[in-house]
Amino acid sequence: MIFLELFFEFFKIGLFTIGGGYAMIPLIKEAVLNHNWLSEAEFLDMIGISEVTPGPIAINMATYIGVEQGGLFMGPFGSFLGGLIATFAVILPAFIIMLLISIILKRVIKNRFVQGALKGIRAVAVALILSAGITLLSDVLFPISIANGNISVSFNKTPVFIFLLIAFFSFVLTKVMKKKLQPILVIVVSAVIGIVINYLLILPA
Prior knowledge:
This protein is mainly alpha-helical. It folds into two domains: 2-151, no CATH class; 156-201. It is built from seven helices and two strands; from the N terminus they run H-H-H-H-H-E-E-H-H. The protein has a two-stranded antiparallel sheet with strand order 1-2. Strand 1 (144-147) and strand 2 form a beta hairpin.
C-alpha cells in the first residue's frame, strides 16, 4: 500500500541521514527513483522548488511526493493523507532521537566514547553533504537521455552560464559596490536569469 511505502521510506531516510536536509538528498533520490515516484528530471526540479519555498528541503520534498503519490491512489483525500504521512515519517526519527539526547546527553557529553562518536558523525555529515553536491552537479551538467534504447550523456552549458552571471553579479555587488550579499536577492536574480535564458533558448533562431 502506498501509504505504508511512504511512511517506511521517509522514516528510513530520516533515521539514517546525518547532517540535515542536504545530506538527505542522495537517500531521497534513491527512494523516489526506485519506486518511480519521480523521474530524474522531476527530482532535480523539485530540489529547486524546495529551495525557494519555506521550510527544510527534505520536508518539502517529502510533503510533495506524499501529496502526489497519495493523490494518485485515493484522490484529494489521498493527497492530504500522503503528504501528512510522508512529512510525519521524515521528521519522526529526529524528534525521537533529540528527545532521547536531551534526556541523557548532559550526563554523558564528556565521555570520551561519546566525544569520539560525535567526531565521527561530523565527518560523515560533511561527506554526505559533499556527496549530495557532487551528485546534483553531475546530474545538472551532464544529463543522461535515453532514446530508442540508446543512452547518451551531454554537457549542459546553460547552468554554467547562469552560474557565471550570478558570480559576476555577486562580485560587482560585494567588491565594487561594497554591498552586503542578501540570499533572497540572489535567489530572485537567479530565477530571473534562468527564466530569461531559457526563454531566449527556445526562441527560433
